[in-house]
Predict the structure.
Amino acid sequence: MKYLFTLLFTIALFTAANAQSRTGTVEYQKINRQAVIAELPFPEKTIRDAIEDTMQKMGYKGKDSKGYTVYKGVHLPALGNDLYDLYFLADRKSRKDKESSTLTLMITKGYDSFVSDSSDSRVINNAKDYMDSIRNTIAAYDLEQQIVAQEDAVKKADKKFTGLVDDAANLEKKKKNLEKDIEDNKKDQASQQAEIVKQKQILDTLRGKRRS
């Protein structure tokens, strides 16, 4: 099992290392905005949860905005020295492929001041590197979730086994009690059979007196 987890994690990292983020155009509030887009080999929920976990550890809480999760006033040296509002959107890549998703990131330097190549190419280029690196963060988070789930599965299996052991002990006790009851019953049968013989003998004696 440990080998399987290691293999999955290695595959995820290898896939991530060979994929590159790109810039694209998305519509937000009826306006086309430039965004950084990454194709990720994870379900959209895993991506959202991983980003939320990462941001919470940094002290930021996201809010929903037209499908995006927005983290405001984020200090992220990987992007630059300013404070940024980060707009994340994770979408399933296709209906058939539930294990792959597209992660979109838009960046602003304040209300409606969306960053683009024309306004700050340095931040956009940094965002591409950041989105490439976030793949490993998501892979590590996904691995930890698998470990937690497997630990829970092991605990449940152990609990069930303990229950079966307890049941066996109870059944063994019942078996011994039942065997004793059977043995007592046999003794009672023999005793009762002797009583029947005795009573029949008395009856035969009484009947004999009737004839005499």
Observations:
- Residues 117-211 form the longest helix (95 residues).
